Amino acid sequence: MRPFALYAPCLWMAALLASTAVRAQESHLPGVFVHGPRDAAIGTADSATEGAAEKAAFQARPKLRPGDIVEAVPGVVATQHSGDGKANQYFLRGFNLDHGTDFAITVDGMPVNMPTHGHGQGFADLNFLIPELVSGVHYRKGPYFADGGDFSLAGSAALGHVSALDAPFAEATLGAHGFRRLLAAGSRTWEDQTWLGAIALEGNDGPWDAPERLRKVNAVLRYSHGTPARGFSLTGMAYQGRWNATDQIPERLVASGGLSRFGSLNPTDGGRSRRASLSGQWFAHTPEGQTQFGAYAIDYRFALFSDFTYFLNDPVHGDQFEQTDRRRIFGAQALHSRPNRIAGLDGILRLGAQWRGDRIGEVGLYRTVARERIATVRDDRVAQDLFSVHVQQLLHFSARWRGYLGLRGDVLRYRVDGREPVYGRVNSGHGHDALASPKAGLAFTATPAHELYLNAGAGLHSNDVRGATIRTDPQSGLPADPVPALVKGRGAEIGWRFQPHDGLALTAALWQLQLDSELVYVGDAGTTEPGRASTRRGLEATVRWQAHPRWRLEGDVALSRARFRGQAPAGEGNHIDNAVERVLAAGVVYASGPLTAALRLRYLGPRALDTRGTVRSRAATLLNLGVRHAVDRHLTLGLDLFNLAGRQDNDIEYLYASCTAGEVARGTCDGGIEGRHIHPVEPRSARVSARWAF
Fold first, then answer.
1. Nearest Cα residue to 122 out of 96, 147, 85
2. How many structural domains does the chain have?
């Protein structure tokens, strides 16, 4: 990995701006080009499960990790089963989304999900974010909208950056288990131009017996120019992190006292990651229509060392492996909307096009011992391009009825060049795939306070293209069947929204989603794991209530059922393992004068760990509290308490076979011992902060 000097110019400029910025003017530029729905409200919303969490609503919540910010999307759970430098584990709508598959995340129009990633398809790492700079989270559920593309079958979240700050500030945070963080940020505005810079330094050891030794640097530099009617912005971001990881461990060792809940069987696990990006957005709003254009370039480096089975496969050297990803990403998108009339009906026509190109110099899987390579399983160079066009027509049929029709087309072209000497050539290849996805929606305003919705559509997610060219399993040498590069899903939803006034909003929705295949590229093995067609259905409900000028209440309920379709193979069932079934969340925010307090409860219910549903995970409940007190106009003190109830639950549970060194020595392994493998939630902990505004 290259040294930090690679980012020196960006870091220096961000630090300079943060230290010398003056108080921003009152009339600064608004944020621009945030892909997402309109502020969902009766008369303008397109579904019951779209919305926006504005900055004031989610910034008050205590956040253990940057990825926790996506829990502003109702029904989403973000956990961690490894070191904090790794992407979060996400759950939504009956999916164990792993690290992002079927949940599309963008930041300032840039995609976060990584196709054909070394660790997992759709890998969505948000550690490059500085959460304090996020202006809002716009979300949608389901494949019902023409501008929703790859990875958005379950839902999508679009995050945007603020263009200016009320005042420059510096903040220091200290917490349990060696947590420390320094943040400096500021902006400067004159006339119609704004510069914003920020830099954050963070370290953390965590509660683990093998200290995490997380070290990360984040920097942002942003320039905005224009007016609310026309303008553009340029944003540079840089991130670098290193960490040790405590992966999931066998529950049998914890139960026997052979290992603590926070212990590790391989203290050399961990990784490093680096991301640098430059993005630009331009917009123009006129009475004749709205036009947006954006482009981005990303340089990304990633290396992860993991060990989940210990000595099962290699009793001599152990089962640690390295996954690498080195790529550059280029992309652009354009969107134009304009009012029109069809057959005497008022409407809005939306046209858009997108291109994303990934040039992956190395995506590899290696066997390692203490982070030293001893064998190559896969080493590939990959190039893939996704081209997309979409159109959506909204029509107002009457004062109470409106609806839309949309169509999206996606074409994926790819090439895989294998460099592993044994099977690399045979698993190389190139090809293309294409899908057309129709969309439709209907809204009925029953009363000024009630609105009903019906939505349906097809969508897609891409598979790891190494699975589309594979011919031989690199682990066993046996023949392997290639899989489609694009997989279609079909969904429908009926919903209701109740908004009697601006201070209260209730939504409810019944939904169903069918996938043609649950095929998954297994990055740990370098091959494709076949899956069957599936159906998911569920119920979601949310409430947002400003009960009093000082009190805001929130509540979310998400129930789902996920099953494979058709006859189950012998010895298996139809449960989709680790599919989330119940998510409950509730929160209260109190704001009065200089004091703000936020209490947040999250419940992740039990779920099947095998396809027969005979083994189930335990529920996990977290209660977090955040308090901020503005002592004066300069000084603000903060306190965050995590896992306030001191629960000994698990962030993740898996069911599989493993074998430890001791079990090998005793001769008790016998092909592996199947059982639960867990990664615990972090224990009760506290962080204190002090912010000084200049």
1. 96
2. 1
**CA pair distance 455, 166, nearest whole angstrom:** 40
- pLDDT tens digits, one per residue of 633-685: 999 999 999 999 999 999 999 999 999 999 999 999 988 999 999 999 999 99
Q: Is the per-residue pLDDT at 525 higher than 80?
A: no
| Closest-CA residue to 465 (of 352, 544, 382, 525) | 382
Give the residue numbers spanning the domain of 638. Answer: 4-693
- Of the chain, the percentage scoring pLDDT greater than 90 comes to 84
Asked whether the predicted pLDDT for residue 256 surpasses 60, the reply is yes
Contact call for residues 342 and 395 (beta carbons, < 8 A)? yes
In the three-class reduction of DSSP (H, G, I as helix; E, B as strand; rest coil), residue 306 is classed as strand
Q: In sequence order, what DSSP letters do the residues of 419-433 get, joined into one string?
A: --TTTTTTT-EEEEE
CATH of the domain at 65: 2.40.170.20
Two tokens at 336? 């134009």
DSSP 8-state assignment for residue 566: S
> Which pair of structure tokens corresponds to residue 533?
């067609």
Average pLDDT over residues 55-83: 90
pLDDT confidence of residue 658: 95
Q: What's the predicted TM-score (pTM) here?
A: 0.93
DSSP 459-501: EEEEPPTHHHH--B-TTT--B-----SEEEEEEEEEEEEEEEE
- CB of 653 closer than 8 Å to CB of 680: no
User: 144, 41, 37: which is closest to 442 by C-alpha?
Assistant: 144
Q: Is 466 left (phi over 0), alpha (psi -120 to 50) or beta?
A: alpha
Dist. CA 91–CA 604, nearest whole Å: 9
Backbone φ and ψ for 27, nearest 5 degrees, come out as -105, 80
**What's the gap between Cα 274 and its chain centre?**
17
Q: For 310-335, what is the mean pLDDT?
A: 96
> Which helix (H) or strand (E) segment is 8 a member of?
helix 8-20
DSSP 190-232: ETTEEEEEEEEEEEE--S-SS---EEEEEEEEEEEEE-SSEEE
